Amino acid sequence: MSTLDKLAHKLKIPMAKVRFLGLLQTLFGKNEDPELLYQTLLARGFPLQEKGEKIELKTASTPLKEQEFVIVDIETNGSKPHNSQVIEIGALKSKGSKIIDRFESFIYAKEIPEYITKLTGIELKDLEHAPSQREVLLRFKEFLGDAVFVAHNVGFDYNFISNKLDELGYGKLANRKLCSIDLAKRTIPSERYGLEFLNESLGIKTAVSHRAYADALTAYEIMRRALRRLPKRVHNAEELIIFSKRAPCVAIENGEQAKSQ
Fold first, then answer.
1. Residues of the chain with pLDDT under 50
2. How far, CA to CA in Å, does 12 sit from each of 7, 43, 234, 237?
3. Confidence (pTM)
């Protein structure tokens, strides 16, 4: 369990601020300034808020229908952040059953391998006048805020963006994250769980694949269908994250009563 996951687990119930600051020192180091740690976590997107004399985790206290999710997809010119970069990012922000905002941009790059062009259709000329990676990722970070970061195979998109932000001097992301593959496996019986397969089998029919915004939209539609099949005991994003990480399709196999949203 990561340090951020440990912190989230401890904050399932609101905690007195004095105790919270002590917890930060326990988790991050006794020589660290706890107030600075607190402000740094907020800046990095960890969803904290103060109510009276207590600190609470917004993703544990916000009803699922009021929680903001940002569903993300990126295209890159390589698989490793240390020697490649994001060339396109697409995202949409949802709340309840509605899309409330969107984000889409190419990013300037000096080179694109031929296999990436064949896969995505993105050519170097498409990026010639695009804004820099620094500019786009900072705008995306502002768009993301402290919403839950969602992606199909979330580890790749989240870690790539997070590492690039850190490389640029802005620190890594601390947002809570949710994998739409894991969530689909828990709620949607399917032969395979790749984005293109689910797009076709669920009748989503997004016209373009391997382009950032179109793939983010497909992931959103998969998530939307999954949320309709949740057991009634899942009330907030933290419970949703935990639910998504359990064995595939347990809720369906055990006959748990599902709810529609």
1. 250-261
2. 9, 21, 14, 11
3. 0.92
